[in-house]
TrEMBL record:
The chain crosses the membrane at residues 21-43, 178-203, 224-256, 276-298. It is a multi-pass membrane protein. Forms a membrane-associated complex with FtsE. Residues 56-161 form the FtsX extracellular domain. It is found in: Cell membrane. This is Cell division protein FtsX. The lineage of its organism: Bacteria, Bacillati, Actinomycetota, Actinomycetes, Micrococcales.
Length: 304
């Protein structure tokens, strides 16, 4: 009987305040979409860092069949040249600056390339022969890059020496800045959503003042009186959160995985599967936002 009463009051409140409910849905949708966008940016930064930034500090690229500088005019690196480079890495002059190093063959480079660009048309257009083999070096002190560069840049068989962190750092700075902006906008929109939910619940309670008085007289508990109003806000915010989840999926599927992937010039794109962790956060945030705003509003405006 009590459940039926609560559901009846809930349905009545939703019908009476449909315009305000739609407003709550829309503002929650917009605010949580910004939250989702901030999450996507962080996932994208993590995608970039995961293979390049956190694992590689300096890369010594070896010559392949397509020469790009005078070190490679004789063709691809020979086994003797490769052995010489490895010996230099283990030599007393260089070893103190090297924490560890690994060798990546052309086949391994192709496998990593396809892993990074799984969502890009580029993945099927590159062969192992197009990619150079390389020594991946982690330095004991990243500031000592110039020593490695001077030691290997003119060595026969070496195509180039690249400090990957310096190459990628500007991109990460821009993307982290975009994340901060998205989080700021999301916080502002969440405040707006909380205020709108609070106002909606307040107006809903005021429009049913006589019904609330009657429920008090018949001995209805504080929870029974307040619960329909709280559920109104929660339902509206949950619908907004579900719409925001759909918007996040569409951004990854059609914009990042479609438009950006087609014009991709060298940036790995996150997949739709990687963003599933964002959905529960958006829905839970919507529910908590609506629940807290509703309870606070009722305590201030509905004295039971």
């Amino acid at each position: 009987m009590r459940l039926a009463f609560i559901l009846g009051e809930l349905g009545s409140g939703l019908r009476r305040n449909m315009t305000m409910v739609i407003s709550v849905i829309l503002v929650t949708f917009v605010s949580l979409t910004f939250v989702g966008a901030a999450g996507l940016l962080q996932l994208q930064v993590g995608q970039l860092k995961g293979f390049w930034y956190d694992k590689v500090q300096v890369t010594v690229y070896l010559c392949n069949d397509v020469p790009t500088n005078t070190n490679c005019v004789a063709g691809a690196v020979t086994p003797d040249q490769k052995q010489n480079i490895q010996g230099m890495l283990d030599s007393p002059a260089v070893k103190p600056y090297v924490e560890k190093w690994t060798f990546e063959s052309q086949d391994e480079a192709l496998a990593h390339f396809k892993e990074q660009f799984a969502n890009s048309p580029m993945a099927d257009s590159v062969e192992a022969g197009n990619l150079p083999s390389s020594f991946r070096i982690k330095l004991t002190d990243p500031e000592k890059y110039q020593i490695i560069n001077e030691s290997f840049s003119a060595t026969p068989g070496v195509d180039s020496v690249v400090d990957q962190r310096k190459v990628l750092e500007p991109l990460f700075v821009v993307m982290n800045g975009a994340t901060i902006v998205a989080v700021g906008l999301a916080a502002l929109m969440i405040i707006c959503a909380a205020l709108l939910i609070s106002t909606t619940i307040k107006l809903s309670a005021q429009s049913r003042a006589k019904e609330i008085d009657i429920m008090r007289l018949v001995g209805a508990s504080k929870t029974v009186i307040q619960l329909p109003f709280v559920l109104e806000g929660v339902i509206a915010a949950t619908i907004g959160a579900l719409l925001a989840s759909g918007a996040v999926w569409a951004i990854v599927k059609f914009f990042m995985g479609g438009f950006l992937a087609k014009g991709n010039t060298g940036m790995p794109i996150i997949s739709t599967g990687q963003m599933f962790a964002i959905y529960p956060v958006l829905i839970l945030l919507g529910i908590v936002l609506a629940g807290v705003a509703s309870v606070v509003s009722l305590r201030k405006n509905l004295k039971v």
